[in-house]
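Hmm, what's this shape?
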Amino acid sequence: MGPEALHRRSALRRAVVAGIAAIVVGGVALTVTIRASDGSGIAPRTGAQLVADLGSAPLGPLTGTVTEHADLRFVLPAPCKHATQGCGPLAADGTGSSQFDSLVSGSHTLRMWWDGQDRERIALVGTLGESDIIRNGPDMWIWSSTGNTVTHYGGPPGPASGTPAVSRAPLTPGELTTALLRMMSPSTAVTTRPSTTIAGRPAHVLQIDPDGQGCLIDRIRIAVDAETHVALRVQVYGTHDKRPAFELGFTQISFGAPDPSVFGFNPPPGVHVRAEQDDATAGIDGALARHIAGSGWTSVVEMAVPFTDHGPGGQGDGTIDLATAAARKVKGPWGTGYLIETRLFTTLLVPGNRMFIGAVGPAAVQRAARSAY
């Protein structure tokens, strides 16, 4: 595989991993319509109250286990000579993988420890391995037990927070909820659903119905802890979906400061440590995003995508091979680009390390990209 193909594969992998996060960049002020909750077993809250609860709830120290399930259904181009399951909609299954890029498909388990913005640890537990993101003050480490490399980010700390300037895609229900709430527009409908129990805790259920012609997201349901107002589960449905296309929720959660030792990290003997400064390769950095078309839920965002891949030979874990096969070539003023379609978002990767992404169909994304040239 030549350098150009390797860089393209790397960028496509990052584009797909970034999808859920990138569709929630931006947003405007909030006004909601309200339907009363039935409040089964817990004191009722209106939709407006739950939105306010989520916006003001501090994510205090906690330890928890989160399960993630993604069924994005990559739409393959024809002919699909690289596909192993035929043409048409495809759900590549990354279940059991311990690589973070496998989160685009299948079911996964993540363990998390949180003690404020400057100390966190998230572990993706696979069948035969584990990958970790450890943030401790100005340092962040990304480590995988299946590789021989540890990435250390120790760039200038973020303003007032003491955290590294590098950021990542949302990996907890609270982070994803915060990003989704930024998409709210004055015409977004917010209602409630019957209460539920998540991780043994009573929870209200908030439903958000995105507005905007052509939006690929039909509805979002957020389970809100009745006592702490922390988001316990997020479910995102595509149009006409009966089951969530993406779900992220706690199966276990306890509040209280984790043992400080969990945030310490010493690279294993023989492992190569690759030092990075202010780099965005760990995830979505909002400073790199530029809104270019649409508004609210139908926004299309342009982002810079680093064309780097430090994995062995630039290969993914097999799951991303299918995601890469789902990309089809499209031509425009950018030259030749690569388009990825899923149930929830569309991504266009073009020369010059540029990516255009939105929760809309391919025509809208390409139209927005043309306006940027």
User: Anything to note?
Assistant: The first strand starts at residue 62 and ends at 71. The first helix runs from residue 3 to 22. Residues 31-70+107-263 form a domain with the outer membrane lipoprotein receptor (LolB), chain A fold (CATH 2.50.20.10). The chain is about 15% helix and 35% strand.
